[in-house]
Write a structure and sequence with these properties.
By secondary structure, the protein is of the alpha/beta class. It is built from 19 helices and 15 strands. A 5-stranded mixed sheet has the order 1-5-4-3-2, with helices on both faces. Strands 7-6-10-9-8 form a 5-stranded antiparallel sheet, with helices on both faces. It starts with 5 loop residues before the first helix and ends in an 8-residue tail after the last helix.
Length: 520
């Protein structure tokens, strides 16, 4: 099982919560645990641990850094941003910081949860077992049936203590895992609740329902959800205090579950990146860890740039595109990895492939509507197993290059001719002997004399070397077309009687000169 690295930890809880100042050994160093500093005892040898510098001013943490290095620790976390960076670098120990007003026990719980999370052990409902136990505990202490919700009013956990009064709203909410919508009064109750900083007693909204005691769940100013207790008329006298304590515990459990999910997503994304790059040490094992088996293809999604070549806040919008792709793929295939690489979102679509394009079209439509930016999608070839995913990704990358507003979604088979010409153009342009020849003389003559001999040639070739067909494509008289070809042979030294030269000239004009298909 992979261990958590410093980079993994920063991906999950980095930013305002945890700031990295220096990492002399890099971010790939392992982080095995988070420990609280006890100044009364010597530091034990804890290779890979992060030491939380409790009671040590950030500016005076130099001796602690030296002791941490001697004990084999990965790094030291101080409170405040003025830690001794130079000393940390001298001792080869990472230096991190949290906010000046951060509570050390909260920091310790958050870091310990993120470090302990493992992608192989993380299920979609990770952490919810603890929430169910908490709901039962709150229900027992308050005397009322309890439910824990997320900010979107989805029920995450509920109590199962027998004999407690419940109503139809609770029954329907548990069955659908979603709070029933009962109109503007319901919306107003949630507005009041999320603005409160203490438990609220809320009246029943309809006849036959029961009132509620509710409390928002917050962490660091962020609303994570809410806890609701059914008031059947016999709540404990200290129910409000109990609920407030329960909401605080719920916040820690929700942060822990989110940390586990984010770490699993990050590691899944990195594993998928190596699989698509062809750098995974064992493609089969990597695919098994991602839940992939059998035939699959790579789908690539990208934001369509505007006329200025950019979209507002491109990086953030691309991250939101990744979220949309993940959500849709998870809804279709269950737990699913996606990764953002250089502005392109990649996902692996399992199965034989009959419905892959429809899914891609749905994602493009939903993402375009949600992000207010056009999105395009390319699908590589279906490959039999994980060993071929790097090739399918290469196909998808090529397809992306030939998409446009008229063709926003395509499989490689649908645009095989275009991508073949694209690759031929790259190969020919890189080889002198393939890019030399009469086509350059034809273009030079057109540029110097204002003629259209190159376009005439392409139309003639596209018409199967039929003069009348070429004339129709050019919208000229056949004699005009015939005259141009005679002049072309005389001035550019082109031998149109040689079938090999005709083939090479057509390829060069189409692939290297970029002269597209002729249309009437």
């Amino acid at each position: 099982m992979d261990v958590c690295t410093l980079g993994d930890l920063l991906d999950v809880v980095g930013g305002p919560a945890l700031r990295l100042h220096t990492a002399p050994a890099g971010q790939a160093v392992p982080v095995t645990e988070a420990v609280l500093y006890d100044g009364r005892t010597p530091l034990p040898r804890l290779p890979g641990a992060l030491l939380l510098a409790v009671g040590v001013p950030a500016a005076g943490a130099g001796p602690l850094l030296r002791a941490a290095a001697e004990a084999g620790l990965t790094g030291v976390v101080v409170r405040g941003a003025d830690g001794p960076v130079a000393e940390a670098e001298a001792h080869g120990v990472a230096l991190l910081s949290v906010a000046e007003d951060a509570a050390w026990h909260h920091v310790h719980l958050l870091l310990a949860s993120a470090i302990a999370a493992r992608p192989t052990a993380v299920a979609p409902d990770s952490g919810l077992g603890d929430l169910f136990a908490l709901a039962d505990a709150i229900a027992t202490a308050t005397g009322g049936a309890t439910a824990i919700e997320d900010p979107r009013q989805r029920i995450l956990a509920y109590s199962t203590v027998p004999g407690q009064p419940i109503d139809e709203d609770r029954r329907q909410g548990i069955l659908g895992r979603q709070v029933p919508t009962t109109g503007t009064e319901n919306t107003e109750q949630y507005r009041r609740l999320f603005a409160a900083d203490r438990p609220l007693r809320l009246p029943a909204l309809t006849d036959g329902d029961l009132p509620r005691l509710a409390m928002p769940v917050r962490a660091g100013g962020e609303t994570l959800g809410s806890v609701w207790v059914v008031d059947g008329g016999a709540l404990a006298p200290d129910a409000e205090d109990t609920l407030a304590q329960g909401a605080s515990t719920a916040a820690l459990l929700l942060l822990r579950a989110r940390a586990a999910r984010e770490l699993a997503r990050h590691r899944g994304g990195e594993l998928l990146r190596r699989l698509l790059d062809g750098t995974a040490a064992d493609a089969t094992t990597a695919a098994e860890r991602l839940g992939l088996a059998g035939p699959a293809r790579v789908a690539a999604f990208v934001l369509a740039l505007d006329s200025a070549g950019s979209v507002p806040d491109t990086e953030r919008t691309a991250s939101r595109l990744l979220d949309v792709v993940r959500l849709q793929c998870e809804a279709r295939y269950g737990r699913h990895a996606g990764v953002l690489v250089d502005g392109v979102v990649y996902a692996v679509l399992p199965g034989p492939g009959e419905r892959h394009k429809r899914l891609a079209e749905d994602i493009v439509a939903r993402a375009g509507q949600a992000l207010r930016v056009p999105v395009r999608a390319a699908l590589g070839e279906v490959v039999p197993d994980a060993e071929g995913l790097a090739h399918s990704r290469a196909d998808a990358d090529l397809v992306l290059r030939v998409l446009d507003a008229r063709l926003p979604v395509a499989t490689v088979d649908e645009v095989r001719a275009r991508v073949t010409l694209l690759r031929l153009a790259e190969v020919m342009a890189g080889r002198r002997e393939l890019s030399a020849g009469a086509w350059r003389r034809v273009l030079a003559y057109d540029a110097g004399h204002g003629t259209e001999y190159a376009r005439t040639l392409v139309c003639w070739f596209d018409a199967g070397c039929d003069m009348a067909g070429a004339a129709k494509l050019l919208a000229v008289h056949p004699n005009t077309c015939r005259y141009r070809l005679r002049q072309l042979q005389q001035h550019a030294g082109v031998d149109l009687d040689d079938p090999d030269e005709r083939l090479v000239l057509w390829l060069q004009l189409r692939a290297l000169a970029g002269l597209g298909p002729a249309t009437p």
